[in-house]
Amino acid sequence: MVLAELGQRITQALGSLxxxxxxxxAVLDACLKEIATALLQADVNVRLVANxxxxxxxxxxxxxxxxxxxxxxxxxxxxxxxxxSMLDGGDPKKTELRKGKTNIVMFVGLQGAGKTTTCTKYxxxxxxxxxxxxxxxxxxxxxxxxxxxxxxxxxxxIPFYGSYTETDPAVIAQQGVExxxxxxxDLIIVxxxxxxxxxxxxxxxxxxxxxxxxxxxxxxxxxxxIGQAAFDQAKAFHESVDxxxxxxxxxxxxxxxxxxxxxxxxxxxxxxxIGTGEHMHEFEGFEAQKxxxxxxx
Length: 297
Ligand code: GDP
What we know:
binds guanosine-5'-diphosphate
């Protein structure tokens, strides 16, 4: 089920309240059951779905609700707020860049998630806002990774650093960061390797790179179309390095959306941006209210 369909199903479930002669406990239960089914089919983590259901029920107390009150509106608002709060990863200030200081931002994620593409989009965006970004390729695992970063960085006119001979990603990361610090770059983006699967070696490598560059921010990049795996994947990265924000890619495609909700819960971190295409400008700031508003159309 794709994201748009999830929205439609929730909207339909809420709409069923309108056609009921009386909105009572049974009608509310049926509506919440339908919403829960839709969320589960969109790969939202099962615990999050149970929470949403319980929280809405707690807020919408049928017995105490004054007659004449538009129950449908109250329920709709409760569902909307619960979805927003599921996407709320805490204080967005924690993800801000410091003007006039060196900001080191490390990107992590599985291979193919869209890290290198996203690093470039991120660099490009902050460059337009007056920062002086640079990119470091600490991916020694995938052949061609440096060439890809080089190509992207050149296109975006952003200085880059990498090596064809050094095999230790932590060494490259450190050298790159040192070089760009000396050159007065105030946003140094470190792109790291991925693996196809969550492997111990990958997490060990992420710890080493993080220890070498001491980043202010660690960004977890996740493919929006992955399903139930999202929660565990995000949690595993969060446990090995100090993930403080999430960027969801490929929301232009067949993303189910549930992954986004689960990643926030697993990392307790906000989504800051979303990728909506392969090109540099296909990148948007993320706002939970707007996202849910759009979802529910
Ligand atoms: P990495 O292995 O994590 O560095 O992933 P890449 O940056 O190489 O991206 C993998 C593929 O996903 C490439 O073909 C990208 O063009 C594509 N990609 C990345 N972000 C997006 C996005 O937001 N939308 C779409 N449609 N494709 C994307």
